[in-house]
Design goal:
- Its EC number is 5.2.1.8.
- PPIases accelerate the folding of proteins. It catalyzes the cis-trans isomerization of proline imidic peptide bonds in oligopeptides.
- The protein is about 15% helix and about 35% strand.
- By secondary structure, the chain is of the alpha+beta class.
- It has one domain: Cyclophilin, CATH 2.40.100.10.
- The strands form two sheets. It has an eight-stranded antiparallel barrel. Strands 8-9 form a two-stranded antiparallel ribbon.
- A hairpin with a 2-residue loop joins strand 8 and strand 9.
- The two termini are about 25 Å apart.
């Protein structure tokens, strides 16, 4: 690895998410939560700085809504899980994949670039509804997904906790839609390391 790449990698920020699985009794009350473990991500801020910063701020909860309330992933769900493909979360507005936000004062932001490819499991990539519609939703790949290249921006990778991603991936689905987990897979805690 070149010195420039080593320096860039050393400057990359790391964030974490602690997951739990539980049955929802109410929108904020869960029965028998089971800890799944911690996922640690390295963010590629040297390649896609705006995308990485958007995700980082939602992990830390430092971004504020127009009303001054903290916004972030803590307490939100992974609303879509497809075995042998990906686990998707980030809709902290509605919890069902219909909500999204971004830190840049607009509803969404543009694709930064498609330099990084979906060539391995454990990549962190932006979920979107078409070109230049990035917001708060993201997914974690569970296998190489080259058909997503040039459509979704890769901005990080799992550096620890792929076993947790595999536990999430194994969650039975079909509740309120074919890809929605039967149990709520919740981001119980998240932040910057």
């Amino acid at each position: 690895m070149s010195n420039a790449l080593l320096r860039a990698a050393a400057q990359r920020r790391r964030v974490y998410m602690d997951g739990t699985a539980a049955r929802a009794l109410h929108t904020t009350i869960f029965a028998d939560p089971v800890p799944l473990g911690r996922i640690t991500f390295e963010l590629f801020k040297d390649v896609v700085p705006r995308t990485a910063e958007n995700f980082r701020q939602y992990c830390t909860g430092e971004h504020r809504s127009a009303q001054g309330r903290p916004q972030g992933y803590k307490g939100s769900r992974f609303h879509r899980i497809i075995q042998d493909f990906m686990c998707q979360g980030g809709d902290f507005l509605h919890g069902d994949g219909t909500g999204s936000a971004c830190i840049y004062g607009t509803k969404s932001f543009a694709d930064e670039n498609f330099v990084l490819k979906h060539d391995q499991p454990g990549l962190l990539s932006m979920a979107n509804s078409g070109p230049n519609t990035n917001g708060s939703q993201f997914f974690i790949t569970t296998k190489p997904t080259p058909f997503l290249d040039s459509k979704h921006v890769v901005f990080g990778k799992v550096v620890d906790g792929m076993d947790v991603v595999r536990k999430m991936e194994a969650t039975k689905t079909g509740h309120r839609g074919k890809d929605m987990p039967n149990l709520d897979v919740i981001i119980a805690q998240c932040g910057e390391m």
